[in-house]
């Protein structure tokens, strides 16, 4: 596989952009390969600047649930672009998208648009703090909520850890207000809430963790989190930046039947343009300026191009049978990959997880239920697997701890090609297992 142009561009990029990329994981560091510079994409396929074609399971990290350059989305963007790209004033499009979100997502009564998932979680936390008059925030180990200062905090050893920042540049004074507990461990959460519950503004969580691999909530876990946060007057924030409009039209909250107080969105609601949103109970949302005292704003928030793309995407997703089809194809892929692992003789050394259109192969035999389990993965073996798949024309996430996304555009042929490639790749990776 020729990657000359990508290699040249990467060298050039590194002169002007830190690490040559605008988001770290794109640099392919943990898989030791040349990041492909992408020239174009259509449906389930992407092409790099050297002319190589790939079946894409990254899907821009989730937004492209309809595949790339979907005709309806492209048309909506074009049509709006002719009328201007930003006004800094209200538009009908914002009202239309907000109404759609409120109608589709069970717990959302009002919603505010922002420009990224990070902005959504950052603003939701500020709102929860303003509303409750409390300081502390609880998150789950391995949960990713964007690069917000107070959320870039990870647990060290031990069951619960009080704020140790994962990045320089975050004062300990900020991080100390963040408490991290293991996912699927309701007792750990209970203990923290018993201890400092009166100063906890919010529990923020990915209802299905999809940034530490794919970690599903055990039956009853989300229900219990809802119950005990309610008891303590703690705002429960579902970070549905990935799960929103992905697990179902109403997101994870509809899928599992849980009602959070606030929810964060991003990725899919922008249809591939930069968008985020947060919303929830009217009583809490009305604490936001200009209605209430908690300040939050954005020059490009509710951007008409992004609204147009989001509306077009959500309209397509509301068509009959879309989610069934996504699930069916993901099941096909998972079944195929299991078969490939069997014939490569590594089946008992890897493990599989999937839910609706999200899936993963962990290079650990462990049944992964929390972040510590995920960390038992053999990332070297994943790197070998990844590189072989890429050479076979399959573009997976360049990290063991990221998932594969199915889109409506993926075909039977794509899946067969993927499974065939995986047989070879599993065999190569198997030598390290
Ligand atoms: C991607 C992601 C974010 C951050 O969104 P950005 O648009 O990258 O800022 C937040 N939460 C979750 C669960 C995500 O997957």
The chain-level mean pLDDT equals 96
CATH top level of the largest domain?
Alpha Beta
Backbone structural class: alpha/beta
Multimeric organization: single chain
Shape: globular
Please give the number of β-strands: 17
- Poorly predicted ranges (pLDDT <50, ≥5 residues)? none
Determine Rg (CA atoms, Å).
Answer: 21 Å
Query: In which order are the strands of the major sheet placed?
Result: 4-13-12-11-10-5-9-7
The small molecules bound here are:
pyridoxal-5'-phosphate
The main pleated sheet reads as: 8 strands, mixed
Fraction of residues in helix: 25-40%
How many domains? The number is 2
CATH topology group of the largest domain? Aspartate Aminotransferase, domain 2
Corresponding CATH superfamily of the largest domain: Type I PLP-dependent aspartate aminotransferase-like (Major domain)
- End-to-end C-alpha gap: 26 Å
Task: Give me the CATH architecture of the largest domain, please.
Answer: 3-Layer(aba) Sandwich
β-sheet strand percentage: 15-25%
How many helices in DSSP terms? 14
Written description of the protein model:
- The protein is α/β, with parallel strands linked by helices and 433 residues long.
- It folds into 2 domains: 4-69 and 321-430, Aspartate Aminotransferase, domain 1, CATH 3.90.1150; 71-317, Type I PLP-dependent aspartate aminotransferase-like (Major domain) (Aspartate Aminotransferase, domain 2), CATH 3.40.640.10.
- The chain has 14 helices and 17 strands.
- The strands form 4 sheets. The chain has an 8-stranded mixed β-sheet, sandwiched between helices. It has a 4-stranded mixed β-sheet with strand order 1-2-3-16.
- Bound molecules: pyridoxal-5'-phosphate (PLP).
- The site of pyridoxal-5'-phosphate has 14 residues, from α4.
